[in-house]
Amino acid sequence: MAPLETDFPAVRACIFDMDGLLLNTEDIITLSTNKLLERYGRPALTRSIRTQLMGIPDSTNGDVFHNWARLPIPREQFARESTELMRAHFPNCEPLPGAEKLLFNLSRARSTSSGAKIQMALASSTKSHSYKLKTSKPETKRLLSYFQPERQILSDDPQVRQGRGKPAPDIFLVALQTLNPASDSGEKPLSPNECLVFEDSVVGVEAARRAGMRVVWVPHPDVAAEYQARQGDVLAGRKRLIDIGDDWQLGRNDDGWAECIPSLEHSDYEKYGIDVPL
């Protein structure tokens, strides 16, 4: 096993998830799902089921949800009606607390190691059509404008291999590739450990750890409560909700590569070598 790294370089790039981190999409998904459950006389999502579904692809969490819900309709019909409800509500998405201030500050910030501007990218499991709906309001459109279009990597981006979504590291490594060509002339290429990933999902943290990047985990309050006793495993990327092998990519508990904060309002710039002008 490799020795622990304790002397981290200053961060030169920040990579963000979107759903449940920058935008309140997880609450909207829950609202839509509960409306559909009510339509068929079923109880609302419990905290435990909700946390098992957050950030997990439908192909993986389908059995968990449908075994619990015991719906009187075929899965295909539920999926169709659920998609219709979510698409109707996604245009109501709003930025989460601290998101706009953090992106604004980072857009002006520089790395203490090189003095170069902090680079930023988006690495989201959402697809292009849903992304347009979620960012249709002026305030959400403005929020996502902090990311240049070529640095907005979505799950259906052709650069991300099919079937290699989070917790695989691919989407974060693609995001890193989009950032490197923009480095100032003479600057050395960005290395993964100079990237700080902001994530809300358990599989997202694992994907970032597999990519060799540092992580700030900002879980939904329900997720934080559900995983309180297992936070160390989450931060190490070792919850393994989806088994993809390659265990050598995972971290170790308390190895210093990841931390958990209650909201983006609690972001610590100095800790990561990020200098924000007053």
UniProtKB/TrEMBL annotation:
Gene3D superfamilies on file: HAD superfamily/HAD-like (3.40.50.1000), Putative phosphatase, domain 2 (1.10.150.240)
Pfam family for this entry, one: HAD_2
Recorded superkingdom: Eukaryota
InterPro entries, A to Z: HAD-like_sf (IPR036412), HAD-SF_hydro_IA (IPR006439), HAD_2 (IPR041492), HAD_sf (IPR023214), PGP-like_dom2 (IPR023198)
An example molecular function term from Gene Ontology annotations: phosphatase activity
Name this polypeptide is given: GS1-like protein
UniProt organism field: Aspergillus brasiliensis (strain CBS 101740 / IMI 381727 / IBT 21946)
Lineage: Eukaryota, Fungi, Dikarya, Ascomycota, Pezizomycotina
